[in-house]
Amino acid sequence: MPYFFKFVQRVVLTSKDKQNKMKKNYLIFFAHLLVLAIHGQGIVNIPDANFKDALLNHNPVIDTNGDSEIQVSEAEAFLGRINIFAKNVSDLTGVEAFVNISGLNCGFNNLTEIDVSKNTEITFLSFGLNPIKQINISSNLKLEELLGNFSDLETLLMPNVINENLTDIFLNDTEISQLDTTPFPNLNIISCINAKLNSLDVSNNTKLRQLLVQNNRLVSLNLKNGNNPFLLGFDRTASNFTNNPDLDCIQVDDADFSNTNWGTIKDSGAQFSEDCQGSLGIEELELASHTSVFPIPVIDDLTINSKYNIVSCEVLNLIGKTVLVVNENTDSIDMGHFPTGVYLVKITYDEGVVFKKVCKK
After folding, report:
1. pLDDT per position as a tens digit, 194-224
2. CB–CB of 218/276 below 8 Å?
3. DSSP of 57-92, one letter per residue?
4. 59: buried, middle or exposed (CB in 10 Å: 19+, 13-18, 0-12)?
5. pTM, whole model, 2 decimals?
6. Residue 46: CA atoms inside 13 Å, Cβ hemisphere, count?
7. Are 353 and 346 in contact (CB under 8 A)?
8. Is 58 exposed, middle or buried (CB count within 10 Å of its CB: 0-12, 13-18, 19+)?
9. How far apart are the first and last CA of the chain?
10. 3-state secondary structure of 126
11. C-alpha separations of 313 from 167, 299, 309, 310, 333 in Å
């Protein structure tokens, strides 16, 4: 009997030891899981290997603990500009963790979208040389400089409130057709050369000193901001509105002042007026919208497409000299013998006059 009780006691003790050991193992296991979970939550998810590599090798240093990961704490502690120019990056996922950066230069990459809605402290944003078509800056109310040159940008989504900080916009060689400058009353520079703007109103931008919108598709340009002398900038070539063949009227503060100082920075077919709505009648607007010329560039014959009766056509070079006059109703002009260059075609109807700019190849 005593032996039996000792056996039972030994079995019970052994069972308890096993239970305690299992509990200990479970505790260790769950402790490891907890550490991994906490550690995982502390690392920024950056799926693009090139973006991650650029951040790990960034100067100034972002990966301050040198563990080849970007902790959330490291991202939040970084206050400078992120510069990943020309790093072959396709995905900026992870940039949202950098809530305190002052700027982002992500130009010359493969980005089709950029989300900077969480980067509300940025004052500088450069995204040029990317195939991006749309960007939203409605959350970036501290933004001072916006650069998107040589991108595929078509749409710039604006804030619904005023951003008094933005002073410089550079969107040269883009696809943008509309630019609302109303939310940015302190703009100094707008540069949209070789874009597709069809209208621009800077009447609320009284501090504007440079406007470069040559080679666009403007049909409407309002410069009447009450401070046109300031728009002369550093010299009289600081602004340029040329190569907008469908732009007939430019609204300004003072037509005499503009004719005196800005005569060389507009097309010869455009006039300065203090009231373009009053100076361009409905018939003239209708004429312009229903007149087209092709091919562009022209090699031989330039075809004129219009539903109106043409009285005459006149071709002028860029210094305003007449090089050809056709005093008859015609739907084509022979330009085969013209030297290579840019010309202005003046088409006269019974109802009014339309100017079209053409390139001769």
Report:
1. 999 988 999 989 999 999 999 999 989 999 9
2. no
3. T-SS-S-TT-SSS-BHHHHHH--SEEE-TTS-----
4. exposed
5. 0.69
6. 24
7. yes
8. middle
9. 118
10. strand
11. 43, 18, 11, 8, 8
Angle at 98 between CA 192 and CA 136, to 5 degrees: 35
**All residues at 6 or more sequence positions from 144 whose CB lies less than 8 Å from its CB, including other chains:** 123, 124, 165, 166, 167, 168
For residue 320, which amino acid is it?
Answer: G
What totals of helices (H) and strands (E) does the chain contain, helices first?
6, 20
Q: What is the distance between the alpha carbons of residues 361 and 221, in angstroms, rounded to a whole number? A: 29
Q: What is the CA radius of gyration of the chain?
A: 33
Task: Return the residue matching tokens 């951040």.
Answer: 55
Asked if the 291-360 domain carries CATH number 3.90.960.10, the reply is no
Angle CA 345–349–355, to nearest 5? 25
Q: Can you tell me which residue has the tokens 């203090």? A: 274
Report the C-alpha gap between 155 and 176 in whole angstroms: 6
User: For the segment 122-160, what is each residue's pLDDT rounded down to a tens digit?
Assistant: 999 999 999 999 999 999 999 999 999 999 999 999 887
Q: Judging by beta carbons within 10 Å of its beta carbon (0-12, 13-18, 19+), is residue 313 exposed, middle or buried?
A: buried
Q: Edge to edge, what strands does the sheet with 168-170 contain?
A: 81-83, 103-105, 124-126, 145-147, 168-170, 189-191, 210-212
- Counting other chains too, the contacts that 317-322 makes at CB distance below 8 Å and 24 or more residues apart are 317/341, 317/343, 317/344, 318/268, 318/342, 318/343, 318/344, 320/268
